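Listing 4. Sequential folding, example run.
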Amino acid sequence: MENLVNSDQAIENQNNIQKISPCGIMSDNTSEIIQKLESEMPLFFQGYSDLYSKYLHSIKDIFGVCHLAEKQYFDKFNIDQGILKQFNSYCKSITNTSKSQIDLSRDFLKYYFEFQLSLVDSSDKYFHNLMNNYAKILSQFIK
């Protein structure tokens, strides 16, 4: 009689244990990896931003030091102010073109990211519908 009670308890314990599925295993592990990647993103972007800012400041400092050193040298040549105004105009034109290109690049990236996000949303909806239909067909085979 005792064996029968132990056998019934074993069957009951097996029924209470949550069954593991291959899809559940893959989903859980994939979620862990994605959460880990998401948690590292702020550090990655902040590090890149800090590095880029430091790089730009370094370039600015190099030109600042260069300006101080060369100013004394070029001041001795007494270069015609008309030529310097033309050179300044040329440099301003390059500066404005560069700033315009930066704006165009920024706008391109903005629209590119919006497009990519929209594409991911559409793909997500498509795969949800696909999986729902797959589940319906699979359930009909099981019947």
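-- end of first protein; second protein begins --
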Amino acid sequence: MNIINTIEPIKIDIYNIRNERQKINNELAIKRIQERNLNKDINNEEYKRILSELLIYNKTEKDLLDDCDDNIILLIILAGRISINASRQGTKDELLQIDTCNITLNKLGISMNKLSVNSYRPTKDGQILTNNDIKKNKISLNDCLKSFDAKISGKINGWVFAKIVIGNGGHQDNVFEEAYILCEWVIKYSILSDIYIILIDTDLINKFNELKKRFNLIENLIIGNHIEVQQYFIHKYYHN
């Protein structure tokens, strides 16, 4: 049996992840309010602000929680205000991206494993160093690019820059700027035997297509969303 017929990219609803997680975060906040256990699973700073606002009206935390026991609308509104903002949990999104690709790549004898924060960084002079090496050699982070998000090993070795970018804004623009800088670094410094993956899922299609077009001729640089990256590895490595 031809293995290409048995391996298909895994597709996830990447654009709905945060909406679903926000629902979960809101439900967790409701649970913590009902339990009167507000030391976890909520935005503590926002909760403190609410308690400070209540003081203006001579109301206490107990007054607020007692009212939530009797008023479902107030309970839902309070939970929505103090729940953790899903859009600030980007590392969980990236982990899902990487884990999804890794399931498919494992079938091809390749691994894409998530790296802990700041494990490996490319330096502006062409090195890839661990966080300990950077500290030991007293290298400034200003002399480094953003850290890699995952490492590829197995039939081929390499590095992954993984991000989810939904909507316009400052952070989103920074992600594409970081991607451009890394692509230029790959052209100038990369080892040709290694592969570099720019894994971005985004609704900013024009910006993403511009990035792809700019660097589409670089042999060891792959730019795509989670489906396109899986497809690349399936078509290249399924028969090896």
